[in-house]
Amino acid sequence: MPLPRRSLAAAALVLVLAGGSLFWLRRPASPLGPELATPALALAYLEKVAPAQGKKLFFTPAALEFLPGDREALRKQAGEFDAAAQKPQAWRTLDRKERFDALLLTGSPAAFRPLLDHLRQSPDWTLVDLDPTSLIFRRSPATAWSPKDLEPLKAAFASRPKREQVLMRVQSADRLVAIGEPGPARELLDEAIKIDPSSSPAWTELACLHAAQGQWEKALETSERAVQCDKGYLPALAAKANALFAYGKFNEALALTRQLIEKEPGDGPNLYLHAKVTHAAHAYAEEIETLLKIISVAEARSMPTGTWRIFLAQAYGATGQAEPALAQFEAALKESTLSEKERAFAEKAIERIKSREPIL
After folding, report:
1. How far apart are CA 244 and CA 143, in angstroms?
2. What pLDDT digit, counting tens, does each position of 22-70 carry?
3. Is the separation of the CB atoms in 225 and 217 below 8 Å?
4. Which among 167, 190, 229 is positioned nearest to 28, based on CA atoms?
5. What is the Cα–Cα distance from 39 to 110, expressed in whole angstroms?
6. DSSP letter at 144?
7. Do the two domains 1-16+268-360 and 19-149+174-179 of this chain adopt the same fold?
8. Peptide bond connecting 235 to the previous residue in cis, omega within 30 degrees of 0
9. Which CATH number is 19-149+174-179 given?
10. Is 93 within 8 Å of 58 (Cβ atoms)?
11. With bands split at pLDDT 50, 70 and 90, how would you rate the model's confidence at 15?
12. 136: three-class secondary structure by DSSP
């Protein structure tokens, strides 16, 4: 019996997704101000409250190109920091060594979700600033950020073009969901839609918020509204595909994820959404191709691959490829991150393969 769909979805959440939000913002074709496209606001905040001189800053790779200093040294740090952000234990070890003064978490919260979860639960760190591109933590004690601190941000954007007023709210809402503040996020999105009722990014983020709260009927309704506003906005298609998946409409979801993969290939969130949809739709050839890419990405980032390998083994088995299936199950069992259920499933699957095929 195959593992349930939710196991694959959970694996995708571990590797990709941010906060409650299930998707990401695609950078618009036309230029945005640096406050929306770079960590300019976060860097200004740090310079004001915690000048860089003599301080140790942890940063995510998305901030790399905007930081001053030796590029090669910064790139090396970015790789080390990225690996630590995926494993709280590794992060704690690194922090004991470096004794960071502040953390600049820029980019999609999906890229640093394990670290973000750890920081939110740790008494040693306080969230001190949130803006459309970044989150900043400082070592406790420190004055904590609160949703009321959004008011000066709104005021700063009041004279900006309507699109930037909307995106400021949408991108900030995405970060609010990531830190477990869905109420203020909803308020921002309601404001964004009031400013521009035809904003596909605003409707898409609202669909993501509904999805994060398990409100799938609303998620489907708002994602369809997002697609109607802009049929070329890929996150809207992704939001709709995810809602269709939740409703068990796998073939309809697959038609959308195929479009996403075709229009935006690579190792971004589309890849993981496509993986869970191909699995549910029994599109095994596509699932195998997609899972191989995901495993390669996970290995490059020193992240667990066990759950992905179990699903890859099942896909191989479904297409009659016993030897590759056996190899993937055995590789999965070498990892310590499998759940008891996954480990038992893999062990039983190996027994079945060996009893039916004289592989070993």
Report:
1. 42
2. 333 444 445 788 999 999 999 999 988 765 555 799 999 999 999 988 9
3. no
4. 167
5. 17
6. P
7. no
8. no
9. 3.40.50
10. no
11. very low
12. strand
Length of the chain: 360
**CATH class, 1-16+268-360 region:** mainly alpha
User: Phi and psi of 99, rounded to 5°?
Assistant: 55, 70
Span 101-143, pLDDT tens digits: 999 999 989 889 999 999 999 999 999 999 999 999 999 999 9
User: Chain centroid to CA 73: how far?
Assistant: 26
What is the distance between the alpha carbons of residues 225 and 194, in angstroms, rounded to a whole number? 14
- Partners of 136 in the β-ladder: 104, 129
Residue spans per domain, the chain:
1-16+268-360, 19-149+174-179
Amino acid at 141: P
Q: How far apart are CA 285 and CA 117, in angstroms?
A: 35
Q: pLDDT, tens digit, for every residue of 224-244?
A: 999 999 999 999 999 999 999
Tell which residue, 200, 255, 195, 246, has the closest CA to residue 223.
200
Token pair of 214, please?
A: 């398990």
